[in-house]
Amino acid sequence: MIAAGALLGARILVVDDHRANLELLEILLGGAGYTSVTTCGDARAVCALHREHDYDLIILDLNMPMMSGFEVLARLKLIDSDGYLPVLVLSCESDYKLAALQAGARDFICKPFNHPELLTRVHNLLDVRLLYAEARERGQRLACYDMLTGLPNRSLFDRSLERAMQAGCGPLAAVMLVGLDGLKRLNDTLGYVAGDAVLRQCAQRLAQCAPPGSLIARVGNNEFALLLTGLATARAALAPVRRVRAALDQPFHLPHGSTGLAAAIGVAVGPGQAGPDDPASTLVKDAGTALHQGAQDGQDGCCFFTDAMNARTQARFALENALRQALEQGQFELYYQPKVQISSGRVRGAEALLRWNRPGHGMVAPSEFIPLLEETGLIVPVGTWVIDQACRQLAEWGRRSHGALPVAVNVAGAQFAGGAVEAVVAAALARHGVEPGLLALEVTESSLMGDTAATVRTLVALRAMGVRIAIDDFGTGYSSLAYLKHFPVDALKIDIAFIREVASNPSDAALVDAIIALGHGLGLEVIAEGVETDSQLHYLGRRRCDQIQGYLFSRPLSADGFARLLDEGGGLALPAAAPATESTLLLVDDETCVLSALVRLLRPDGYRILSSSSAAEALELLAVNTVQVILCDQRMDGMSGTEFFDIVKDIYPDSLRIILSGHTELDSILGAVNQGALYRFYLKPWDNDTLREHIRCAFRHYWQLHGLADGMPAAPPVVPLPPGEHHVRHVS
């Protein structure tokens, strides 16, 4: 129901060519309380008056000399074709009633009329008109404004931006897009009431920190837009961006406490006047590109649009379109990287790796297209093809003389949705007649942690078929011991990030040792990926890692190349290691003359002597050889002796470590001693007899500590030095 004040204030136009009728109706309506009544004696002026004043009701006489009421009705229809304009027709000709209603009149009353009846009809027509106007206004507001925040929505923002740019809004204008990260997680955790409260507070903060005259809108579920006008330079947009960033960095207040959300910001600056080459919509598109880049840069990222960014966006768009065609056109292929048993050096299987041979571009790096497959959801159909292709290849190899070896296939988290991967695997195995034990699925830790209950059911079903399960990139995701207990897993794969410096970085070495011990303790096979050097291989072998894969043995091979490798019986040549009971001494000094002097001095004592001119080279030697005693110079380029021994102590704690130094450097030496990094410390120049005797004592101490003294031959006798060298001292 419309309020009485609104009803009596409605705009009414009375049209009649008789002055007396106009005065009568004006007095009658005024007496009833209507305050906005206009009279007109010329029917030709009605349309112009209505365009100017937008009347809520027109009382129209049909019979007028200059223009009939029917012609007026026809012209009014053209002005307000989609609206509801009440026209009350007055006529002394009752026969005109049907024709008037068909022409667009909302009501008809014959002259002479009953005054109360007329006022009642006027009231009813105005009531409907104002209800319609109110509903229409509300509908327009719903179509143009966000009901939660009261801000304009994307549709109104786009129209307002277009109008502002056409009118001109200064030398430069900028569109700032703000995206809240974690809103869905907040809704799922605390409910939509909390999420709505955060959005309202965000809208209020943007309104408070935006410059005067800025247009603010909510253009997406978690996205807001600001139009900044009148900018003299692009740098002028920095101040509003900083204010917005500071405002959103503050916690959002909720009934049960406070919470913070990360926000990414994308900004595009352009001419303040829209032109054919710079439409207003371009600013919004560019700001969206910058926002996406800011979100990729990390939490709370802020990014200004650049032309290079646009080129990357276009390239990404082209890449995505090409990816959608790649599967249909058979552009994908599988390569196979061998897995080698460390203990035997024999190939024990392979990992199937997806490759894309894009026409006109050649092989595309997996790091370029696989993340895009996951983002677009194409990973599901492509993953299905990979499983089927791997099974087809297994069946083909099974018919050859060397037989088939197990092949592992990577499975993305999206493939677990709805348990689809179980059906895909079962169908591929049955279609190609492959033994389930020849297929392994490698899944990352993060892909297991979505719907854990459903994932467990799927993995249990796959294991029941006989398919093997491996955790890929172990240690880089959740690394939860609980899921290793509950998930049916057969193997752990150590990520290349830990293998790369395993022979020189104590932290990586400790993690690798822990993963190997954990895997073997749970009865799992442990595979190291990305093995590229002999030192990595020897380190892993000494830690009893089961298998390796990496460029040290072979890069990924085509199906034919892998088959040739098997036909030729290729395997990993393991260098012969020195016996564990052989006394091995490592000498480290960056001066070759000192190394030569030490080798000449100590060779007659029967040790296996290794020498190195740098700490990095020494770490490589330690990874490949079992060394009991290390003799190292203190002052070396790149890394001092105590720094070197700090690393050795953590990776090879059983070794006995001796420093030789021509400088006292008591602080660093004492620190190393106190931390257990040093066994002995000697000053240069040394006494040959004393040094030889102490090194022999060091070896004796080592064998006693490790319970091998009884089984070891007696320490080699001290061999006299050639004449003239017995009392020689070396001066560095």
From TrEMBL:
Residue ranges of domain Response regulatory in the record: 11-126, 584-699
Modification sites for 4-aspartylphosphate: 61, 633
Annotated ranges, domain GGDEF: 171-307
SMART domains: EAL (SM00052), GGDEF (SM00267), REC (SM00448)
Record-given protein name: EAL domain-containing protein
Segments forming domain EAL: 316-570
A UniProt-annotated Pfam family: GGDEF
Keyword terms, alphabetized: Phosphoprotein
Top-level taxon in the UniProt lineage: Bacteria
Top-level taxonomy: Bacteria, Pseudomonadati, Pseudomonadota, Betaproteobacteria, Burkholderiales
PROSITE patterns in UniProt: EAL (PS50883), GGDEF (PS50887), RESPONSE_REGULATORY (PS50110)
Organism: Massilia violaceinigra
